[in-house]
Input
Amino acid sequence: MKPTLVFDWNGTLLDDAYALLQTTNAILDQCGRARIDIGTLRDHCDVPLSVFYRNLGMSEAEVALVDRDEGAIFHDAYEELANKADLREGARRILELARQEAVPSIIVSNHIVAPLRAQLRRLRIDEYFDEVIAFESRSTQYKSTSKGERLRLYMQQHNLRPESTFIIGDMPVETKIARDLGLISISITGGFVSDERLEAAGPDYTVRNHHELLPILQKHGFLLAA
Output
């Protein structure tokens, strides 16, 4: 029996927390509001991003402005910055090990498919993934089937066993999905959310980088030859 590795993308595989910070500060500048630091971002970041903006004290009118034109203010700024972001420490190695052992790896993300796949090609890791599950377009982002439900349907269609499926993410939502679906949850620090918020969600494991995933997988009897 092989495990299945389910990765979040933003903040988990892609090291883009500071790209989000710069984008958020550009939005706050447009609203005439004070900039924030990375600690404040990690204390307040949430999805959908409209919740994050409200957490920062933005008014409904300001949130509506950012959401206008399918979130163009955010996406146009963020994608340019994300194009300069690298993978998180150890991510490429764990993906290579998984591919060598024919372990299925998939991405389940709240991002949008086309720019996400473009990033995979830029980073030369597109062939490492069996599937990329994300929103179809800006117009459907956060408005169609939820991340957890899409994963549930995928697992059902592909007969994946929850007890050997690991979900790795940098936000409490991945821990909740794991709890709902019976998966093994691994939180990675240094992404979009503070260590304290991650721990409060109660994941099965917490790691600082992707190098620390291998001992966890081996503890469960997987990738023992690595």
Q: What stands out?
A: The longest helix spans residues 60-82. The two ends are 16 Å apart (CA to CA). Residues 17-82 form one domain.
